[in-house]
């Protein structure tokens, strides 16, 4: 990792490269995904199983697309108690956090003769996409929890999960147990763009849903982008990213480990340290060189750090906060002496991790807030996956005759300004004398 002084020309170039790496879709990918989506829409299970056989499970039959109750029951017997203990704690804490987000319908009658309000109702069906993770051998159980638990709290009656099968046509038992714990009503063996298409349009086996959530690769993300509008989606999530703000009180070994925790995701992932201590910058750089030697994903980490890693020195922490707000990172860690002093200055971040003993992985797995977060600077306008993604709001409006007459002339005037005479007449006709 190279050390840059802010705001030098080289630092500006590096920051721009990181901020602008974003989501880029090639025309050929867009055309290919569009073709796949249309094929699933037209031919349903027949097209779906073709892609499952081609990319994941060569010998799996169409009748095996849905995980059976027997598979669900057997899965519980194949996982260890230590996993169940961790799963139960994570699920309980994720549920507790997301219950605080649940809104309520309301009615207001403050204006005489007028009733205004809002009905809040869940969507009927939601689909949770869970990536395969190294052919199913590293099951992303946390994605099942983060997607399905908020949907259940919202009151969604049908929550289904799609995930790529392993080569033998099975789903990792840890993932099936997690799905059951999260309240999923059905699990289906399909991944990538064809799974998104099945959720969006429905097939003979996989029911159509109203909202699709969950992270995935660029093909999943592009498929979600194309079907959005026909169905709701959570967000278009790009490569993972972390920005650590640290002063001289921080532990450089901790910081190095935290930067590496995101770099191992993807060569496009971004890991940044912003510090007001040149000594800290050098110490973290040394710690990174030592720690990376022992990682399984060393090659991915090294590529990520070379392309989108940076250590930036700033004159003070106020400038560090300024840099962070400019980048709007997915994960922002505050490893400074008095972290709570700076919370109010942070405007743009997916999630903020406060203090040296709150590394990003506690948010990925256990703390409670959702780990599906806006990336690539979209934290400027987007928020974490939440209960709200599964709710829709309907306005209620009622006027008495007296309240209608009190406001009628103003409504007519605004309609006439907009050139909408039928709108105005809809009001005028109600003001005409009525036959007795």
Please outline the helices and strands.
Blueprint: E1 3-5, H1 9-19, H2 27-43, H3 45-55, H4 69-77, H5 81-99, E2 106-108, E3 114-122, E4 125-129, H6 141-154, E5 158-163, H7 173-182, E6 186-189, H8 192-201, E7 211-213, H9 218-227, E8 232-233, E9 241-246, H10 252-263, E10 270-275, H11 278-291, H12 298-308, E11 309-313, H13 317-327, E12 331-335, E13 351-354, H14 360-365, E14 391-399, H15 401-417, H16 421-428
Parallel strand pairs: 1-11, 4-5, 4-7, 5-6, 7-8, 9-10, 9-12, 10-11, 12-13
Antiparallel strand pairs: 2-3, 3-14
Helix pairs in contact: 2-3, 2-8, 2-9, 4-7, 5-6, 5-7, 6-7, 8-9, 10-11, 15-16
What can you tell me about this protein's structure?
The structure is a single chain. With 436 residues, the chain is α/β, with parallel strands linked by helices. The protein folds into three domains: 3-22 and 244-368, Nitrogenase molybdenum iron protein domain (Rossmann fold, 3-Layer(aba) Sandwich), CATH 3.40.50; 27-233, Rossmann fold (3-Layer(aba) Sandwich), CATH 3.40.50.1980; 400-428, no CATH class. It contains 16 helices and 14 strands. The strands form three sheets. A six-stranded parallel beta sheet has the order 1-11-10-9-12-13, with helices on both faces. It is globular, with a radius of gyration of 26 Å. It starts with a strand and ends in an 8-residue tail after the last helix. 42% of the residues are buried.
């Amino acid at each position: 990792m190279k050390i840059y002084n802010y705001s030098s020309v080289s630092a500006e170039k590096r920051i721009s490269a990181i901020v602008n790496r974003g989501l880029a879709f090639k025309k050929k990918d867009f055309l290919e995904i569009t073709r796949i989506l249309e094929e699933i829409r037209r031919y349903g299970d027949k097209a779906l199983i073709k892609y499952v056989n081609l990319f994941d499970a060569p010998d799996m039959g169409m009748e095996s697309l849905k995980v059976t109750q027997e598979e669900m029951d057997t899965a519980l017997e194949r996982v260890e108690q230590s996993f169940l203990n961790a799963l139960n704690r994570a699920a309980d804490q994720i549920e507790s956090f997301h219950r605080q987000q649940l809104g309520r319908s309301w009615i207001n009658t403050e204006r005489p003769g007028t009733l205004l309000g809002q009905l809040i109702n869940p969507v009927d069906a939601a689909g949770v996409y869970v990536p395969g993770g190294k052919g199913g051998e590293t099951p992303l159980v946390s994605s099942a929890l983060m997607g399905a638990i908020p949907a259940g709290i919202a009151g969604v009656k049908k929550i289904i999960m799609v995930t790529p099968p392993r080569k033998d046509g099975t789903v990792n038992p840890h993932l099936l147990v997690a799905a059951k714990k999260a309240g999923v009503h059905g699990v289906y063996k399909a991944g990538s763009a064809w799974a998104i298409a099945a959720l969006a349009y429905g097939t003979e086996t996989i029911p159509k849903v109203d909202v699709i959530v969950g992270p995935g690769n660029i093909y999943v993300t592009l498929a979600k982008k194309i079907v959005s509008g026909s169905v709701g989606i959570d967000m278009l999530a790009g490569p993972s990213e972390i920005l650590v703000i640290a002063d001289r009180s921080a532990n450089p070994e901790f910081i190095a480990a935290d930067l590496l925790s995101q770099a191992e995701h993807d060569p496009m992932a971004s890991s940044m340290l912003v510090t007001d201590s040149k000594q800290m910058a050098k110490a973290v750089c040394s710690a990174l060189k030592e720690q990376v030697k022992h990682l399984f994903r060393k090659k991915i980490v090294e590529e990520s750090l070379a392309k989108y890693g940076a250590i930036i020195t700033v004159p003070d922490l106020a400038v560090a906060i300024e840099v962070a707000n400019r980048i709007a990172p997915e994960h922002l860690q505050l490893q400074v002496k008095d972290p709570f002093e700076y919370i109010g200055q942070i405007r743009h971040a997916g999630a903020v991790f406060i203090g040296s003993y709150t590394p990003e992985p506690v948010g990925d797995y256990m703390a409670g807030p959702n780990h599906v977060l806006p990336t690539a600077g979209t934290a400027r306008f987007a928020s974490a996956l939440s209960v709200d993604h599964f709710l829709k709001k309907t306005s209620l409006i009622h006027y008495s005759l007296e309240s209608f007459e009190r406001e009628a002339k103003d409504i007519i005037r605004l309609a006439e300004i907009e050139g909408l005479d039928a709108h105005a007449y809809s009001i005028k006709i109600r003001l005409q004398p009525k036959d007795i």
